[in-house]
Design brief:
This protein is of the alpha/beta class. It has 23 helices and 23 strands. About 35% of the residues lie in helices and about 20% in strands. The strands form four sheets. The chain has an eight-stranded mixed β-sheet with strand order 13-12-14-11-15-16-10-17, sandwiched between helices. Strands 18-23-22-19-21-20 form a six-stranded parallel β-sheet, sandwiched between helices. Strands 3-4-5-7-6 form a five-stranded mixed barrel. It is globular. The two termini are about 35 Å apart.
């Protein structure tokens, strides 16, 4: 890397300069850096210090504080070298600054110190037998250009075995050749927000004159990082609205109204509000892209069903894609029952004589409108207008393609090439964090020549700060009310030694005709081991809880076996279900009142909250028992948080705090886990400002033609991650 005069360089340009071109970074070091995400000079310059040592003040030895990081200076009076082993030696020196004496010792073969030299030392001074001493301090001569002495010293995170000193030296070599660094932000924005200039910020964050300079520099670079992300999200949202041909659903709402009027309960205010928001979106000519989030049991399925019926009313099809077969079957059965209660279910026919089966696309039947519903997974194919078990998979696929089916529920099977829709109007993606973005895009692309409306649902509460990044390109509807009549689930922490009282609780509830879940310990990254764990626990509890009927559910069961187990549990033929986390989402058993989670401290807060949400879905009091003897502070914090609140949004914030952002983004964490500087909890205010400025910039300049440096930087710095942002 060579200097080219005073021409300014953009961060985008530096993102194209390999780190190996920096003096001191050879091929081996470059590989270590690259393995840890530092490929370019831009990456290196954004690898900022984790802390700073203020060595700008030189203490006299007569008054130096003990046990603190300090900098002292003096003349070397004597040096002693002793070899301790083949590769290890001890160097000792006596230093005087005229006010006192200091003995210094290094256990390092590379330390060089000469008698008579004037040196500066940084480290901790201790007193031993009345004498001052230092062990392994940094040492330098009185050099005004030193990176270690007489200044605020940056401590960079080590990377791939490369020490902070090595990183610091490489950055010191790169900076003068990279600067001046161009500022891509409009001048007015920089001044209005009181931001430090980009070039100064990158210099000061590494080698500040004062500690306060480093803080201001970091603030600027945090803003830049969040601003880049929000610009990409703003561009995506704009293109979704302006660049896609959507469907202006013009149904009169009678189908959805009939469905809602037939419900055996009243909607919550949050459900009514969400339905109105979806209706408003779906009547627009541009495609809807909305996130529906709400607590477990808050009624998302009913809201989604109303939107699906709005699509059907207007002559289009609806699709629901779930991440697991168990959840897909649950949605199918739930929708089928709701349609039956509303009188919208069609009569069942002989599949060999389908001529009487006219789709709603063709109008109403003699008895009024009906909705034809299908289930399609890798192992199941079923419809609500043919006798159970009589429909072949090929028939269901054909009926979807010719419009016979109005609504289809499935897994990733829905995006296979063989599946075609007659006219997909609304795609609902449940628990979308379990899908890759490519899979969602494939579902959208099943609509030919236009973009269907998309509704993404999640029962995992998302902190506002996280939703501004994770789903920043989507409109958001929140269900923050629970249906009336439900009691908050009680949560108890029980030590393994007291497990007998848990079994007594299960027996008591079963004696009253209710049911219980027992979730087995989490076995990381091994379905087989989790299955073995669940199988062993099933055998043990079948004996302990006899004569109660104990079932077993785990991920290694065949789909038909899973369906059979859930059918028996749903019908009350089982009292207890021993399971792995395969039942984490989508299981709706109103009669289940006990959730026992073994080794609960090994689960994340979000997962614990999801599991707790499987009970308390009826009118009876539910109890969640966390069986754990936490051995870590994190485990203790999780258990305490679960016992303290049932508020999923509070738990989500706590989960984010405990685990860190990089571990909660799920399938979409590409692009977000790589936030190098920003912390979306600590920097929530900066995130809000960055979002406001980014969306305002895109609103005024949708193609960024007048802000080319910003566009260039977004593309260069987000790299391949821009693809999922632009397809989300």
């Amino acid at each position: 890397m060579t200097a080219t005069g005073t021409t300014s360089r953009s961060l985008a340009y530096l993102a194209g300069v390999p780190a190996e071109r920096v003096k001191g970074i050879g091929p081996r070091s470059a590989k270590k850096l690259g393995d840890n995400g530092i490929h370019s000079v831009a990456d290196l310059l954004l690898h900022v210090p984790r802390r700073y040592l203020d060595r700008s003040q030189l203490f006299d030895l007569a008054s130096v504080p003990l046990g603190e990081e300090v900098t002292v200076g003096g003349t070397v009076l004597a040096v002693e070298l002793r070899r301790l082993s083949k590769n290890r030696k001890r160097t000792s020196a006596r230093i005087s600054d005229g006010t006192n004496l200091l003995t210094v010792t290094w256990f390092n073969p590379y330390v060089k110190v000469a008698k008579g030299a004037d040196v500066v030392l940084s480290g901790k001074v201790e007193r031993f037998r009345g004498r001052l001493q230092m062990s392994n301090p940094d040492i330098d001569t009185l050099d005004p250009d030193s990176l270690l002495i007489g200044r605020v010293v940056p401590i960079h995170p080590a990377v791939g075995g490369l020490s902070p000193t090595k990183i610091r030296s490489a950055i010191a070599n790169a900076l003068p050749r990279a600067r001046p660094i161009e500022d891509p932000l409009p001048r007015g924005m920089v001044e209005r927000l009181g931001l430090m200039e980009r070039d100064a910020a990158i210099g000061m964050v590494h080698f500040p004159d004062e500690a306060s300079d480093a803080s201001r520099a970091r603030e600027r670079l945090v803003f830049d990082e969040l601003f880049r992300l929000e610009v990409a999200l703003a561009l995506q949202k704009h293109r979704q609205i302006e660049g896609s041909v959507g469907i202006a659903h013009d149904g009169d709402g009678t189908l959805a109204a009939a469905f809602l009027d037939a419900l055996p309960y009243s909607l919550t205010g949050a459900q009514r509000r969400a339905i109105e928001e979806l209706d408003a979106d779906m009547t627009q000519a541009h495609p809807m892209h909305r996130l529906l989030q709400g607590e477990v049991g808050s009624g998302k399925t009913v809201v989604a069903a109303a939107a699906l019926l709005t699509a059907v009313q207007g002559g289009h099809q609806g699709a629901v894609m779930a991440p697991t077969e168990v959840l897909a079957v649950q949605h199918y059965l739930g929708l089928r029952d709701l349609l039956e209660e509303a009188g919208l279910d069609p009569p069942r026919h002989d599949p060999s004589a389908p001529e009487g089966m006219v789709s709603l696309f063709g109008g109403e039947t003699a008895d009024g409108p009906v909705v034809r519903l299908a289930l399609l997974t890798s192992s199941s194919a079923e419809v609500n207008f043919v006798a159970a078990g009589a429909a072949r998979r090929a028939d269901v696929i054909r009926w979807i393609a010719d419009g016979m089916v109005d609504l289809v529920v499935g897994t990733h099977s829905l995006i296979q090439d063989a599946i075609e829709f007659a006219g997909l109007g609304l795609a609902v993606v449940d628990e979308q964090h379990r899908f890759g973005v490519h899979q969602r895009v494939q579902l959208k692309e099943k609509a030919d020549g236009y973009a269907p409306d998309v509704l993404i649902m999640t029962a995992t509460p998302i902190p506002r700060t996280l939703s501004m990044t994770l789903y920043g390109d989507l409109d958001v509807s929140v269900l923050d009310e629970m249906p009336p009549g439900r009691l908050p689930c009680r949560t108890r922490h029980v030590r393994p030694a007291d497990i007998a009282e848990v079994y007594d609780l299960i027996r008591h509830e079963a004696g009253a005709g209710r049911q219980a879940f027992v979730v087995c310990p989490l076995v990381e990254d091994s379905d087989k081991l989790e299955a073995a764990s669940a199988t062993a626990e099933h055998e043990r509890l079948s004996s302990i809880l006899a004569p109660l009927r104990v079932g077993l559910m785990h991920g290694q069961l065949r789909p038909s076996e899973k369906e059979d187990v859930m059918r028996r549990f749903r019908r009350g033929e089982l009292d207890v279900l021993v399971a792995t986390t395969v039942i984490e989402v989508g299981i709706d058993i109103p009669n289940a009142t006990v959730m026992v989670i073994e080794d609960a401290d090994r689960f994340g807060l979000s997962q614990l909250h999801q599991l707790r949400g499987r009970v308390g879905r009826g009118s009876d009091q539910a109890t969640c028992v966390l069986v754990a003897d936490p051995s870590t502070d994190v485990g203790e914090q999780r258990i305490a948080a679960m016992v303290a609140t049932t508020d999923g949004f509070r738990l989500a914030e706590e989960d984010l705090r405990i685990r860190g952002q990089g571990t909660v983004f799920g399938a979409r964490q590409a692009g977000l886990k790589d936030l190098k500087l920003a912390d979306i909890l600590r920097d929530a205010e900066t995130l809000a400002v960055a979002r406001r400025e980014a969306f305002a910039l895109v609103a005024s300049d949708p193609d960024l033609r007048g802000s080319a440096p910003v566009a260039e930087e977004v593309r260069a710095m987000l790299g391949a991650d821009v693809e999922w942002l632009f397809k989300s």
